[in-house]
């Protein structure tokens, strides 16, 4: 299963979408845009999961595709 994460930058100015929590795949200005992109990547690469993280990298939500 592919694991995508949506996490804020250190300054919470931008949002990163990462695959397997390694190097960022994409960077977005808005959290909603990052979530939408991660969900699209997850749908295109099923089975997948998207984890949405807060600034402390705690999991706020998980979505399965």
Any overview of this molecule?
The longest helix has 14 residues. The model has no long low-confidence stretch (mean pLDDT 95). It is built from 1 helix and 5 strands. It is globular. Strand 4 and strand 5 form a beta hairpin. It is of the alpha+beta class. It has one domain. The chain has a 5-stranded mixed β-sheet, covered by helices on one side.
List the helices and strands and how they pair.
Elements: E1 2-8, E2 15-19, E3 24-28, H1 31-44, E4 48-53, E5 59-64
Parallel strand pairs: 1-4
Antiparallel strand pairs: 1-2, 2-3, 4-5
Characteristic key phrases:
65 residues, five-stranded mixed β-sheet, 45% strand, DUF2188 domain-containing protein, DUF2188
Inertia-based shape? globular
> How many strands in all?
5
Domain count: 1
C-alpha termini separation: 10 Å
Task: Find the structural class using helix and strand composition.
Answer: alpha+beta
Strand order, largest beta sheet: 3-2-1-4-5
Mean pLDDT, to the nearest integer, reads 95
The profile of the biggest β sheet is:
5 strands, mixed
Q: What is the number of helices?
A: 1
Succession of helices and strands: EEEHEE
What Rg do the Cα atoms give? Answer: 10 Å
**Segments where pLDDT lies below 50 for 5+ residues?**
none
Q: Helical percent range? A: 10-25%
Strand content: 35-45%
Summed up:
This protein is of the alpha+beta class and 65 residues long. The protein has one domain.
């Amino acid at each position: 299963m592919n694991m995508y994460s949506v996490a804020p930058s250190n300054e919470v100015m931008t949002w990163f979408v990462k695959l397997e929590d390694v190097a960022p795949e994409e960077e977005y200005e808005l959290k909603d845009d990052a979530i939408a992109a991660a969900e699209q990547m997850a749908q295109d690469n099923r089975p997948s999961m998207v984890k949405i993280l807060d600034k402390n990298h705690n999991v706020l939500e998980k979505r399965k595709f």
